[in-house]
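Hi there, hope your week has been kind to you so far. Would you mind checking whether the tokens look sensible for this chain? I owe you a coffee for this, so here goes:
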Amino acid sequence: MFERLRNNRFFLKTQFFRSMNFRFMVFLFLIGTVPLVVFSGAVLSAYKNQSLTRLGNDLNNQCQILATQIGSAGYLSQMGNETLTGELMQIATLNDGRMIIIDQNLRIVEDTYELEIGRTMVAEEVIRCFKGESTGRNISGRFIEITIPIVTGNEENKTTIGVILASASTDGITARLEEFWRSSEMWMVAIIICILALSILLSNWLVRPLRHMNQSIGGLVEGAMDGDLDIHDCTETEVISNTFNNLLAKLRLMEESRQEFVSNVSHELKTPLASMKVLADSLLMQEGAPVELYQEFMQDIADEIDRENTIISDLLTLVKTDRRTTDLSVVMTDINEFLELILKRLRPIAEISNIELVFESNRSVSAEIDPTRLSLAFSNLVENAIKYNRENGWVRVTLDADHKFFYVKVSDSGMGIPQESLDYIFERFYRVDKSHSREIGGTGLGLAITRSAVVAHRGAIRVQSVLEEGTTFTVRIPLRYIA
């Protein structure tokens, strides 16, 4: 039991993490928090850069003023000048840094730390400064360093007599950044919690139409698909609802067709059996019946058996056709020879009723078809044209083609089809004249089989008919099979 509960919990957790609700929640949370973190980092980085720039500019301005004073007053020749020392200490203290003055001999003449006085300073920045090259500023560890030349002379004749090497501590900037981050942490945590809560609410709101749709579909399934889906929470669900209703209507139509088909099959199969039962009972009830009567009744029973066998064969053919609509054995075929062979097999049937069977071809046609499937389709059309024709009538089969399709017309001089029946003749077991069909052995499945074969070839079939004048079936098939 505990194992089952643990498995159920694991299944629910797995379902939640795979759900669209969870994905929406994570997406919205990231949309809210990632820009917040990036923005916070950008603000801190901008503040740090601005503070360092301001500190460097202040130090540079102070040192420039000091360098001008030293160069114009000749302080380098007056070592131990209290005024110079005081200004150096003031700048160093103000910036929590260090001030060093180097003369032309690269000797340190002043140091606010009083550690390097009298020593030689050979540094790249100092050498470049004496050469008149721009050195700029350098951030090294916890300090920002600059070098400023001490110049004498006028604009035309300048001489660098020394260099000021100044440094300022960045600890104050770092401390302010840490303080700012600590003060903003609480606000960021509060904002992230609000974003999480808002993400949960928004994800539930976004998924609500889908839940509503799932409940509605579940209700329809429980109600055996009675009613329609009516969801107008948003445009997308309304479109899905309409599409689902269209699909539902087709399913209902298919269910009705299935029930009607089962009913028709049951009726068609039971009718010959009922006839055979009546004939057999009639024989059993007549004691000493003559041989001629037995022979007559047995012939009728044999006819009913043949009729039953024909219905079953057509049903099997139709089932195979429905299941294998895409399984075609396509080969390049000479359509002229293909149709002539079909007509050759059916001529004996036409000769019985003295019906003229004519084949007309406007051109030689070759196409990619399944000969077995299309042979059954065209045989049904021609055989129907012969069976439902008049005595001494005619059946004309015409072949033509263009650059994309070939066309086969099967015309006859028969009894024709009423206009109100033209929309139903391709349905299974549909007959225009049931009594006449029974006389000539029709099952009502031939045209359904024909249409299935034509559709499997990505073709089309249409019919035109005038009552008491004749009927024309036109079949269009692509020259190249499209899988």
Notes: The radius of gyration is 50 Å. Residues 353 and 391 are 5 Å apart (CA to CA). The mean pLDDT is 78. The first helix runs from residue 2 to 18.
